[in-house]
Sequence to fold (374 residues):
Amino acid sequence: MITCYKCGNRAVIYRKYEGRAWCKKHFSEQLESKVKKTIRDEKLIEKNDKICVALSGGKDSSLTLYLLHKFFGKRPDIEIFALTVDEGISGYRKESIKIAEKLCKKLGVEHHVVSFKEEFGKTLDEIVEKKKARACTYCGVLRRYLLNKKSREFGATKLAVGHNLDDEIQSIFINYLKGDINRLIRLGAKPAIISKKEFVVRIKPLRNIPEKETTLYCLLNGIQVHRSVCPYSHDSVRFDVRNFLNQMEEKYPGTKYNVIKFYDTLKPALVKHFKDKGGKVRICPRCGEPTSRDICKTCELLDSIKD
Amino acid sequence: MQIKLKFSNGKSKVFHVKKDSTIEDLLKEIGVNIETVIVKMNGKIVPEVEKLEDNCTLELIEFVSSG
Fold:
């Protein structure tokens, strides 16, 4: 039997990247400490913050809400609420919304649901059917737009997203593969490059936690999560990059942490060199949301799906 | 040794492995990346470096990026 490095009890995980095994108790404590360290080191949460957690009902966003509530739920100066976007994906999103609602009820957290249908007049299924386009392009842009707009309208000072280590390094690779330096330098636990009052500051408390460990924590600590696969998820570059990075990590343990450490070391130099070359942030004359273009990407996509 | 493997989709299959094989050995054999699953052996979550027990039941919990 593999036993815990610290207490000798039965282990639930062996981290190849550090060469140690951990039991449920010590694994959970370590994960919480790591998240707290990210929050502290990156100053993700400050006094009097009103935090909107982007909650899909999946493991990462559920864990983000669970931990922020655990760490800050009793702080009188910090407010937490959850926001779910219903893109309108049949056979997938309804169930996850139910799970999100259940978690919010259990924690006593205010929960808002906004939908593509109500906001844009079409579900994602209808958009994809009409355009025969990549669902992730539309979904990503429209969802980010709604999360920023609605969290701001609800008075949030921070928008907490469930991006884990895997998500972050996938984004590093995707932007590298696309040659998109402007997006590349915007990654991080709290991308602070754009300061505009229309942008709610996005924070990523789970940025240093591998996906496998966010899943394990949820399983061990009884956090019910939605586990179905988005029917459109195979339709993205991210899917291929994810597979590649998982193969590398399996063969060369520590790869994922090396990628993020390398990025974090390089980022200050990249920001210094490219910050002023990414185009000025202005306000979209059509919708009033922040953008670096004349007309924002959301309005451009919405134009393309007009009947 | 005989191992019963239960997949996330509810299906199961019996495998025969050499003595002292680990869970990771079996996962490699069937082409499952250890980065993408959590494994239960006889109902308990275990590290993949654990040795397989004869006549045990393994359950693979696959996970996916949510959003």
Q: What stands out?
A: Residues 261 and 267 of chain A are 10 Å apart (CA to CA). The longest strand of chain A covers residues 79-86.
